[in-house]
Specification:
This protein has three helices and no strands. It is mostly helical and about 70 residues long. The chain has one domain.
């Protein structure tokens, strides 16, 4: 179940989340427009809204989701 929040994500935050997503997808050869990338993006947004904003921490949190 996704985390629900009424907080807004600013342009700087969005840029960081996008960079984390792009690096993860590039490393695992996941198409950015695909369903798996969308799922990863939702997870990143949820974690960010929960309070995780450090790019390295977000990348580490994605690792278990990138295992094939």
């Amino acid at each position: 179940m996704p985390f629900a929040s009424f907080d807004a994500i600013g342009p700087e935050d969005l840029a960081v989340l996008r960079q984390v997503l792009e690096r993860a997808c590039h490393a695992k050869q996941i198409p950015l427009g695909g369903a798996r990338a969308q799922m990863l993006a939702r997870e990143l947004v949820d974690w960010h809204l929960f309070g995780v904003s450090d790019p390295a921490e977000l990348e580490a949190m994605l690792e278990p989701l990138l295992v094939d």
